[in-house]
Design a protein that fits this description.
Blueprint: H1 2-34, E1 38-44, H2 63-71, E2 73-79, H3 85-94, H4 98-101, H5 111-115, H6 121-129, E3 132-137, E4 153-156, E5 167-170, E6 173-176, H7 181-194, E7 201-206, H8 236-239, H9 243-246, H10 256-259, H11 278-305, E8 312-318, E9 323-324, E10 330-332, H12 338-341, E11 342-343, E12 345-348, E13 357-364, H13 368-375, H14 390-394, E14 404-408, E15 420-424, E16 428-432, E17 441-444, H15 462-478
Parallel strand pairs: 1-7, 1-8, 2-13, 3-4, 3-7
Antiparallel strand pairs: 2-11, 2-12, 4-5, 5-6, 8-12, 9-10, 14-15, 15-16, 16-17
Helix pairs in contact: 7-11
């Protein structure tokens, strides 16, 4: 009787244990379903929209970025709202305009203090959705390279860093490295993804390439030697009406870096004897881009091998475009023209995006943060200036934005490009320079996509000028821009 009772009790115990294991397994499945997707966000520096194969460049070879576009969505009308490194990166991270997050330019040595306060989307994912977060690469909001809040793993460097043998900070330890920076950034990214992750992860991968000094890896030195680089037509007609660009600036008595120590820029890494003509610069940018593309290929491989590629949102973009001779400007951004504002943006995530999707609506750097938080199931009470792209991807016919605000705040060290506020629609662009009398610009993009003819002072377009001014004022007020009172 005692043996029978013991066997009966044992059977019941086994049944209970099996049931508990079943419940635990079911709970794990529920928990897995509740976990958000992995995120790999890749940003290049100073890469203009048309410097990719998937965006029509006739010579460049970017097979891995092109694969992202072919297997996901290519946003053909994506824009940075401030075409400068530090403010643009802050906008990607926060979903806010520059006048909201206050990282206004590359000048201020105090930006490192401000950037420790940013509520970035990786920080929100870590705090609200239990993500494991990593930042690898260029931070550039202040010269300080120490870890920012919200990142479990941190690899960065002071300012722009160095293409060759950079000094980096890995978590909290500074190290001298040997190698090519783009390859090292890719190495660290692959190493992070290779790890076993008990939680969903968010990797923010920030390349220094293809920024000045455009130093390619030795293995790419001979690439694109036969590529001819066309120079845009720059003549008196294309410069007429661009008062801000063509005005003469007084020469300072002493160098600005001496007069303005609180705004002194970091000294650029040397070009190591390479010329600065347009043809050489563009070829070197393409060579630098090749190393970035190869790194993306390596990430593809490890994501596939681990069986998590389709569970991972992969995004590739740039912080702003770059002028390749337009308006006579070489090695320039900042200015409010489309080659500077327009950026590449490709997104792969099969759970949401069908292969070969093309989105021609205007999307912004500000849209990334709210999109990723929504995909991760995070409800965030603080409003964004951007908007989630999910509705647009699910319902391509849905109404989207008709216009957007862009802005730039003058840097003390580069005073030629003044503060401006602008509004762009699919057909028109208006730019207001509050510090310059009579310098406003209006372009009919539908007829003048190269922005050669300023029609702001043409009576035939007075109604359109008034409409665009009204829209600029509306957008500034809607985003609580404290500088709205300076608008016409």
């Amino acid at each position: 009787m005692g043996v029978f009772f013991s066997m009966k009790l044992l059977s019941r115990s086994i049944a209970v244990c099996v049931f508990i294991v079943f419940l635990m397994g079911a709970q794990l499945e529920v928990d897995a379903a509740q976990h958000g997707p992995n995120i790999v966000f890749i940003i290049a520096d100073d890469l203009r929209y048309d410097l990719l194969g998937c965006n029509g460049h006739p010579h460049v070879r970017t097979p891995n970025i092109d694969r992202l576009a072919a297997e996901g969505a290519n946003f053909t009308q994506a824009f940075a709202t401030t075409p400068l490194c530090s403010p643009s990166r802050a906008s990607f991270l926060t979903g806010l305009h520059t006048h909201q997050h206050h990282i206004v330019n590359n000048d201020g040595q105090g930006l490192h203090v401000l950037s420790h306060r940013l509520m970035t989307f990786p920080r929100i994912l870590r705090e609200e959705a239990d993500y494991e977060t990593a930042y690898i690469g260029k931070w550039h909001m202040g010269f300080d390279d120490t870890r920012r809040p919200g990142f479990d793993h941190w690899i960065s460097f002071k300012g722009q860093g160095q293409f060759v043998d950079p000094v980096v900070i890995i978590d909290d330890e500074r190290k001298q490295t040997d190698g090519y920076l783009t390859d090292l950034i890719s190495d660290w990214a692959v190493e992070f993804v290779e790890q076993d992750h008990e939680r969903p992860f968010c990797l923010f991968l920030s390349h220094e390439a293809v920024h000045y000094p455009f130093l390619p890896a030795e293995r790419h030195e001979d690439l694109y030697n036969d590529v001819e680089v066309p120079e845009p037509v720059v003549d008196e007609a294309s410069l007429r009406g661009k008062v801000a660009l063509t005005r003469e600036m007084p020469e300072p008595a002493t160098p600005l870096w001496f007069e303005l120590p609180d705004a002194s820029p970091e000294r650029a890494e040397p070009r190591r004897g390479r010329p600065n003509d347009l043809e050489t610069v563009v070829r070197d940018q393409l060579r630098c881009l090749t190393a970035v593309d190869e790194g993306i290929g390596r990430l593809y491989e490890v994501l596939e091998r681990k069986g998590i590629l389709d569970k991972t949102i992969v995004i590739f973009t740039s912080d702003q475009g770059y002028l390749h001779g337009e308006c006579g400007l070489i090695r320039q951004k900042r200015w409010p023209y489309d080659p500077s504002l327009r950026i590449p943006l490709v997104v792969r995530y099969p759970a949401l995006i069908s292969p070969g999707t093309q989105v021609d609506d205007m999307v912004l750097s500000l849209d990334i943060a709210p999109t990723l938080l929504e995909l991760a199931g995070v409800e965030w009470d603080t409003p964004f200036d951007g908007r989630s792209l999910i509705t647009k991807l699910q319902k391509p016919e849905s109404l989207w934005r008709d216009s957007f605000l862009f802005e730039y705040f003058v840097e003390k060290i580069t005073p030629h490009c003044p503060t401006y506020f602008g509004v762009r629609t699919s057909d028109w662009k208006y730019v207001h320079y509050p510090e310059l009398e009579g310098a406003d610009e209006l372009y009919h993009l539908a007829e003048d996509p190269d922005e050669r003819t300023n029609v702001a002072h043409n009576p035939a377009h007075a109604d359109e000028l008034a409409r665009m001014r009204k829209e600029l004022l509306r957008l500034n007020r809607a985003t609580e821009n404290p500088f709205a009172m300076s608008l016409p």
